């Protein structure tokens, strides 16, 4: 039939339903595929249909964020292409291209292409109107091969599908979760696709406790996904790459740590600086240890990092509201929110994330060495010797041409530190 040739990525709905119902009328010839669906363990009838018949499930969780990325990169496509008519030729062809990127990345197409004798073993699972619930990637790979060489890959001219008793959206969603996400979430799905689904469910008014119950997850785990998704979205916006989700495919653990550490920070200014620093780290090549391990150290060494960033980027700040001696003696617990807001703005304007990452690495490396030294009994003596050497060097370099700005304040800080040290000696 002519319409069978035209609709390479899915027959029209009425044609799908007719073809499936006609094929199901001969129960003697039907195999069975058993699955748990909508509260029951069911034997699904398995039928053989033309490869052009089924349609991809546009609501597929795996492609949630990838669809957004595709729209971001193809501005000529209508924004509602995936929602206005999911079964349309344009929506199905676009979904095919998105799935093709996935199977190329996962070498699935290569697997079938390199072994032209490798055939279908498990049926696709479809609704009773031909929407593929499980097997979208396989169908994409087979279509790519069959349409490229119908003689060589003639074994993909037809495909076997196990037919569900209905086309219930919630039932199909739960089945996808049960078959793919819950069984092996990390291996099968990129983190932000799962997070995008949770985020959309909450936006649509679904109770988070209901999501947790249905998927056998903890509420806090789902919240972490959602918070990570929000921070990742803000990050992509900040670097001028909105919805380019593939850029954060490998950053799941990093965003988890960002969520955890940011919650511990109280001051808005400190939060802002922390955010700018992690944005820079996310954009930079890995320097030393993995990023997700470095993020907690950034939070605990924020004051030292802020000071070094201010110096190296020559950021002018109005520090009249901050007491220098308090900052020197109180560590990262000091109140430096206003100052850190200005530093955050300074490094944002500089637009040099790699330089920021290098500075952060140097500060953290120094901090790690300092922690090792603290374990020595001679730690205090060693540090004072270093300070004495630095002061001696400063005196030997005295010259009227040298800038005196800020020197008096720092000497006050040193005097205060000396008083604290002498009190410690007396004790």
Write up this protein.
The chain is α/β, with parallel strands linked by helices and 427 residues long. It folds into four domains: 2-185, no CATH class; 190-249; 267-372, no CATH class; 376-427. It is 61% helix and 8% strand. The chain has helices at residues 2-6, 13-23, 64-73, 81-84, 89-105, 108-114, 136-148, 169-188, 191-203, 208-215, 219-238, 252-264, 268-283, 291-300, 302-312, 324-330, 337-350, 353-374, 379-396, 407-426, and strands spanning 31-37, 40-50, 55-56, 124-126, 131-134, 158-163. A hairpin with a 4-residue loop joins strand 4 and strand 5 (131-134). Helix 6 (108-114) crosses helix 7 (136-148), helix 9 (191-203) crosses helix 11 and helix 11 (219-238) packs across helix 12 (252-264). The chain is elongated, with a radius of gyration of 30 Å. Residues 1-5 and 325-335 have low confidence and may be disordered.
